Automatic annotation (TrEMBL):
Top-level taxonomy: Bacteria, Bacillati, Actinomycetota, Actinomycetes, Mycobacteriales
Organism from which the protein derives: Mycolicibacterium sediminis
Gene3D superfamilies: Ribonuclease Z/Hydroxyacylglutathione hydrolase-like
Domain of life: Bacteria
Residues covered by region (Disordered): 1-23
InterPro entries per UniProt: RibonucZ/Hydroxyglut_hydro (IPR036866), UPF0173_UPF0282_UlaG_hydrolase (IPR050114)
Composition bias type Basic and acidic residues, residue spans: 9-19
Name of the featured protein: MBL fold metallo-hydrolase
PANTHER family for the chain: METALLO-BETA-LACTAMASE DOMAIN-CONTAINING PROTEIN (PTHR43546:SF7), UPF0173 METAL-DEPENDENT HYDROLASE MJ1163-RELATED (PTHR43546)
Amino acid sequence: MDAPAPAARDGHHGGDRTARRGTSRRLYVSGDTLYIDELAEIPVRFDAIDAGVLHLGGTRIPAGRKLPFGLTVTMDGEQGAATAELLDLPSAIPVHFDDYGVFASPLSDFRAAMERRGRADRLVELERGGSVTL
């Protein structure tokens, strides 16, 4: 992903809720996490985000009363789409969704959830090792 760095000092963000400040871009990288209440702080603290790199897959591990289905410990497709909506991401880039056998939520879950939310046009799918210029 190419995201040049120098930021404009005027703070101008334009009227389309993109965070374009000169040639800088603001990215949200989820890491391995879940959709949690604290994510609502992000749009409060930051004007806008240009793109989100969402680690998906819906990792499940065995966990007591949750057996045989297990406990979900990373975002699944539905949580990823909810995050994209909460953060009003102009571009949502799913990654890490097919790396391990413990993933229970394929990319198609995320596609469907984005479609249901009317955000399918914001989905940016990359081949493994691919890049996108923002």
